[in-house]
Amino acid sequence: MELQFSNSLQLKQSLKLNQVMIQRFNILQQSVQEFEASLQEEAKKNPFIYVRSQQSSVPFSAQGDDYVSPLEFATYEESLLSSLTTQLDAQMLSEQDYEITLTLIDHLDDKGFLPNYKDVRKEISAQFDVDDRHVFKCLKVLQSFEPDGIGSRNVNECLWNQIDHYGLDDPDDESNLKELVKHHLDAISNKDYDSIKSALSINDSELSHYLEFISHLNPMPAIQFTNKEQVKIEPSLRITVNEGVIELQNLEEERMSVHLNNDMLKTLEGNIDSDTQKKLADAKVWIEHYKKRQDLLKRCGEYIIKKQRLFFVEGQEYILPCLQKEMAVDLDVSESTISRIARTKYIETPYGVILFKNLCQRSIYGKTKQQVKLLIEYYCQRYPKLSDQKLSNLLKEIGLPIARRTVTKYRHEIDQTSSYFRKH
Questions:
Q1: Per the structure, how many domains does the chain have?
Q2: 70 φ, ψ to 5°?
Q3: CATH code for position 373
Q4: φ, ψ dihedrals at 321, nearest 5°
Q5: 186: CB partners within 8 A, 6+ apart
Q6: pLDDT (tens digit per residue) in 136-193
Q7: Global pTM?
Q8: 320: containing domain
Q9: Count of beta carbons in the 10 Å neighbourhood of residue 387
Q10: Sign of torsion, CA 115 119 125 127?
Q11: Are residues 354 and 246 in the same domain?
């Protein structure tokens, strides 16, 4: 008797949502100030956490004892409109799609919603002579921007989009969370937990984790822009260039270190009750969070140096296409993890202090016509023997799908001769 085995059984490896994972999500997306404040607060409650604050490192451009760092006065204040238009400018869109998306941005309310979307869609369709699907395509472009949930038509869609951007490991967790925010927000408000557990076929522990996760979502994505208080900038990374050599410093690690309080452990001498054991376990989790954050910051910094070398050496005009999803694949982490690291972290560079996300976009990254011309001029001068086809291939390798005929057109516009004359 011959036995036949099916190869349809697949090994499913995914991390279920839990308290530690939710905590990790929040810690990764915190700014330097928020992260250091949360560590200090946790250390006050937990004697096993030892936080050592160290003197801030000297700015790389410091010159002598009388030097005053511009970071002493650097603050950050941005409106919702400027944040969204900056992201819009980074998209490779047609002129019409750009204008449609900009019109959608203009119709956002104070919460960042489009509650009157049907009326706006009708207006845009008539103005630009496009159908409803075309307007919806531009709406999805807007909804891909940060802050997560922007451009949603109601609270349910806002929370749904935020869950979608998290990129959770376990598909069941993602499905259940989306079901919760789509159909059960009233039940959550009324604390009708039994009906939720029955509808989703989940237990008390899973529901608890889901509710904890949802509590950290933002039902009003634009609220952060209503606070006019200026935020002092504290860079997480510093990148310097010295005679073509690019170096990376993790400033967070230099400002603060976190360890287990060994003196506390020695005092106990093995006499640990259940409450003390829990505090010790919590301390180890927080220390692991700290290490994970610093390790990821360093790896992201190294990746950015590799991808944006031309920017660090030549300047702002040479920022190259770089996608967070590509970084995620290269670093073997989720795209949402990269998004959380990039959104609030600053990098000190030879060309000023800039947001990490400005060097690595979450969605489609485009270049302006002028920037493309600058790149073509740079490569024509740097590699004079390259033909237009080879220049086109080179641009494609760095993320710019520019056809050979477009390279030729731009080369003529910037008065660069063909490779035949450049190499003679």
A1: 3
A2: -65, -20
A3: 1.10.10
A4: -60, 130
A5: none
A6: 999 999 999 888 899 999 999 999 999 998 878 789 999 999 999 999 999 999 999 9
A7: 0.70
A8: 19-69+233-358
A9: 15
A10: negative
A11: yes
